[in-house]
Specification:
Length: 277
């Protein structure tokens, strides 16, 4: 009887997981299938029908002169790389200071900074826009990256908790060998934190690869247009050509899938490290 109940429970859990997987993956499958259809096929067949035959002409056209999707990809890649470098550098420095250095008001300052996680992004959009406009940075590359360059509350919190778990004896041994704070960070703390840093890097890349609201507000025209705003422009400018729009979304997702497949082992390892101490 117990074995029968256990099997029923396993079957129910499996069915729930399969349903969740279908709901999660269905939009991506539909996006790829629509991108592989011609405009005539999309208009003449049901939305859920597979392309017959599949075509790559939408992806080819996306990178042609009519749509010029290369520039948004290049701008997005530049923004992500600069923000990633800044996030890793300044988040490591701030997290180590909050975790290991002693100074007055350290904990109060940390929790006050962490409380900004509760503030929605839309609340800060107008003040940031006014600041960038007054500084003459509106519709520039630096306007896209400066609000995110110097770390984030989530990143600092994540790294601080990990740095606090590093044995103090290890840091003391490095100091006895004559290492200062910078050398300890470079040769002890960072190497011991590679899995969590890789996870933070992946989260940062995904977040800013998909960032939409701030680029939409602070930029205009096509010079500093990122992929999300370029795709939104396709939806409004070419509203009847959904295969092109789906080709753009598919192209946008592919680098993130590759990134996850490359670093999935380190991400799982970081979850194991942070979850079982």
């Amino acid at each position: 009887m117990r074995r029968h109940r256990s099997r029923l429970t396993d079957a129910a859990v499996l069915a729930a997981l399969l349903a969740g997987a279908v709901v999660t993956l269905a939009p991506f499958v539909l996006s790829v299938a629509t991108a592989a259809k011609t405009t005539r096929q999309f208009a003449a067949t049901p939305v859920l029908s597979p392309p017959a035959p599949p075509t790559a002409e939408n992806v080819v056209a996306l990178f042609g002169r009519d749509y010029d999707f290369v520039t948004p990809i290049a701008v997005t890649a530049q923004v992500v790389l600069v923000v990633l470098a800044g996030q890793l550098l300044f988040s490591v420095l701030a997290a180590y200071a909050f975790a290991r250095l002693e100074f007055p008001g350290r904990d109060a300052l940390f929790w006050l900074y962490l409380a900004t996680l509760m503030v929605p992004q839309v609340v800060t959009i107008i003040p940031l826009y006014l600041m960038m406009t007054d500084a003459g940075l509106r519709n520039t590359f630096w306007a896209l990256v400066l609000p995110y360059l110097f770390g984030s509350p989530y990143a600092i919190f994540l790294l601080r908790e990990h740095f606090r778990a590093i044995p103090q004896d290890l840091l003391d041994a490095a100091r006895l060998d004559g290492a200062g704070t910078v050398r300890i960070l470079r040769h002890v703390v960072v190497p011991a934190s590679r899995p969590i840093l890789v996870t933070l890097a992946v989260i940062t890349v995904v977040t800013h690869w998909n960032n939409f609201l701030w680029p939409l507000v602070i930029t205009s025209g096509r010079t500093w247009q990122v992929m999300t705003t370029a795709t939104a422009g396709l939806q409004t400018q070419y509203n009847g050509n959904w295969p092109i729009v789906m080709a753009a979304t598919t192209v946008s997702v592919v680098p993130l899938i590759v990134l996850f497949l490359v670093f999935q082992r380190r991400i799982v390892r970081s979850i194991t490290i942070t979850g079982f101490r």
